[in-house]
Amino acid sequence: QVLLVESGGELVQAGGSLRLSCAASGGTFSRYRMSWFRQAPGKEREFVATISWSGNRNYVDSVKGRFTISRDNANNTVYLQMNSLKPEDTAVYYCAAKLSSGGSWTDGFEYDTWGQGTQVTVSS
Quick check: 67 and 82 in contact, CB under 8 A? Predict the structure, then answer.
């Protein structure tokens, strides 16, 4: 089972950009579907983006055209490039790994492993 460690979260002004990284270790990274979720204060965890082992991507509607998920299987890392950030993007961002091909990739309960989270704060 992989171990996940996120980094890259910080305070940024609205309209700015950030790139989050999630480094995986201890498993066969290329076999996992990798996703990003986020949780804002007082809100439920929300699916943000996912990328399959073959590179197929999907996003929640609110980030389409602004966020891009990518993966580097050689370096066991998944990224989330976030552009045109808005205050409503403020949240703790988590990466998650899912080994099985079945189930829903937007359902956090389907995932096998989670990182500790990284805080993204967008000021207006």
Answer: yes
pLDDT at residue number 68: 98
- Report d(CA 111, CA 1) in Å as an integer: 11
Count Cβ atoms within 10 A of the Cβ of residue 66 and give its class: 0-12 exposed, 13-18 middle, 19 or more buried.
middle
Beta-bridged to residue 49, according to DSSP, are: 36, 59
Per residue in 48-83, pLDDT (tens digit) is 999 999 999 999 999 999 999 999 999 999 999 999
Buried b (16+ CB within 10 A) or exposed e, 89-111: bbbbbbbbbbbeeeeebeebebb
* Confidence at 100, pLDDT banded by 50, 70, 90: confident
Query: Which class for 14: exposed (0-12), middle (13-18), buried (19 or more C-beta within 10 A)?
Result: middle
Three-state secondary structure call for residue 53 = coil
User: How many angstroms separate the CA atoms of 124 and 105, rounded?
Assistant: 31
